Amino acid sequence: MTVLILGLLIFLGVHSVRIVAEDWRGAQIARIGEKRWKGIYSVLSVVGLVLIIWGYGLARAHPVLVWTPPTWGRHVAIPLVAIAFILVPAAHVPNNHFKTLLGHPMVLGVLLWAFAHLLANGTLRAVVLFGAVLLWAIVDFVAARRRDVLAKTTYPPANVARDGIVIVAGLAAWALFAFVLHGWLFGVRPLG
């Protein structure tokens, strides 16, 4: 569990700098440059992610059941994760309704992903991983929306064609992950 927690601290810590130290972040970017900042940020993120995946795998050797997930949890988790996968490209495809309405669809996608996995898993490792990510996503979304209000951020008008790109890309990525990658990476096939 130590490796998992260390990975979470690194990954979520790096992703929390803007939440807790916006001025410090700006000063560092000014001091070392945006490219170098993004490079350091990316390396630390990858290290954190690798530790999370490795630590989660290590924790499988000694499973601790915290609660028994409801039988419907897995069935609800599947469409929630599909929606989460749609929200990720919505953050990157300009002029889509998801971005216009939600402002920060990727963070909401991460929130839904974590919540869905909590519904379907009751082990201590799952509660630690998905609970930490869920809490982080809630805090990050609130902070991001607060920044939008303070900056008077407005999102450009959306069009349906862009929504189609987002939905197709998200569902294609979800299908690839649900049917192939999830089982290969984590040993669990959510759709059998």
TrEMBL record:
- Which segments constitute the NnrU domain? 3-190
Is Nucleotide-binding one of the keywords UniProt gives this record? no
Q: What domain of life is recorded for the organism? A: Bacteria
Listed InterPro entries:
NnrU_dom (IPR009915)
Q: Name one GO cellular component term.
A: membrane
Tell me one Pfam family matched here: NnrU
Cellular compartments annotated: Membrane
Alphabetically sorted, this entry's keywords are:
Membrane, Transmembrane, Transmembrane helix
Q: Any transmembrane segments, and where?
A: 40-59, 71-90, 102-120, 127-144, 164-186
Membrane topology (UniProt): Multi-pass membrane protein
**Mind telling me what this protein is named?**
NnrU domain-containing protein
